[in-house]
Amino acid sequence: MLKNLRSIRISNNLTTSQVAEKIGVSLRTYQNYENGSTEMPFALMKKLADFFNCSVDYLLGHQPQNVLYLDSLTDEQKEAVELVKQLNDKQVLKVIGYIERIKDTPFEDVVNKILKKED
Fold this sequence. Notes:
Structural class: mainly alpha
Radius of gyration: 20 Å
Largest sheet: none
Number of helices: 8
Shape: elongated
């Protein structure tokens, strides 16, 4: 039984019919998967996991959703993770604060600000 299927669907503000359409099954079939009365084929579980950007294990209730798979990151993101791993907790909080300040800033503005500091 997919223990977290209903909760992840709801947290993504999707209806059962929207998910059923997305994965290519009838509404009734999807509802049966979600309520556990019909066992879902693994290929379909994988399709749902990809759709919801989570693992099959999460859908099955075997692991928390906040697992980060490094193979899903770009090389630059992997490098950032490696650098953050070298920091202490106080430094990590500073990095988080910095990211929060720049995440909605156009990239060119961030680069220009960094270049001005280097001059």
